Amino acid sequence: MNNLIDGFCDYASVIKGLNQKTIEAYGQDLYQFSEFIGEDLKKVSTDTVYTYLERYSNKRTLNRKLSTINSFFKYLEQQDKIDNIPVLRSAKVTQNLPKYLSPEDIEDGLDLIDRKKWTDYRDYAFFLFLYASGCRVSEALDIKKEDFEGGWLTIRSGKGDKERVVPVAKRALSAIDEYLSLRPFYSEDLWSNYKGGKLSRIFAFKRSKKYFGNSPHVFRHSFATSLILGGADLRVVQELLGHASINTTQIYTHLQKENLKETVFKYHPMSKGL
Predict the structure, then answer these.
(1) What are the start-end ranges of the E strands in the chain?
(2) Does the annotation count 220 as an active-site position?
(3) Pick from 80, 146, 252, 256: most CB atoms within 10 A?
(4) Where are the domains of the chain?
(5) 159 part of the active site
């Protein structure tokens, strides 16, 4: 069984091109599963897998492990290691609308940044950039100045090592230029601390809590929300966020429906007085 798991992890790394963290998670999930089922894969049924998964009360964790097991069995079938694979369905997870800030909330937070020192200009430009680009915080902190060209940003350290290109608003680009003109040293990193090193995730979190009362990840949701409420196509938002599946972006469709409802209630003549 261990050899099969190792073979699957090698396949996922070399053939599928998945990153190391994903491979490690696959291995951990499958070794836990193998301890439960033993060595005889032919005796594994749908009921066996569901019995194993009953130990996980969190549906997201359950679905992640189920996805790993599904991928493993499909691999075994392709390799002629097993004849019949179990039919496994994911648990339904309630999608909660992610927390986001309105454009007014963001402007209020930006106004709290007292731009007297170059580090203040950096903070102002950083959060303006997060809202304008929809970057993950980890992506933003890895960005170099040369990743910008003609108003476009190439994100090279995306999730799953996938590269994508997104446009960035002129206001954010101007704020970055102003910050860089005031920074008293040269650094390959776009976002630097006062010692010249790269900004850390902890620093970004503390500053975001200070000015906006939320983690910096809220800017990514705010970016997507602003686009959806402005009428952007869901597939476009998916591309800009770098989501591998449209299912991940579907969480914002609730906003789209609410916006449509408000528009009908506001402008349709039959909605008057309702």
Answers:
(1) 148-149, 152-155, 164-167
(2) yes
(3) 252
(4) 2-78, 103-261
(5) yes
- Other CB atoms within 10 A of residue 38 CB: 10
Mean pLDDT by 10 residues, the chain (274 residues): 88 83 88 84 80 80 85 86 72 62 94 95 97 93 92 79 87 96 94 92 94 94 88 87 81 65 62 54
Check if 243 is active-site.
yes
Of the candidates 65, 122, 136, 207, the residue annotated as catalytic is 136
Report strand pairing: 148-149 vs 164-167. unpaired
Which of 81, 164, 198, 217 does the annotation list as catalytic? 217
Single out the catalytic residue among 59, 115, 164, 243: 243
**Catalytic annotation on 186?**
no
CA 240, CA 263: separation in Å to the nearest integer? 26
121 is catalytic: no
Q: How far apart are the first and last CA of the chain?
A: 64
- Model-level pTM greater than 0.70? no
Whether CATH 3.90.180.10 fits 103-261: no
- Residue 212, burial from CB neighbour count under 10 angstroms (0-12, 13-18, 19+): buried
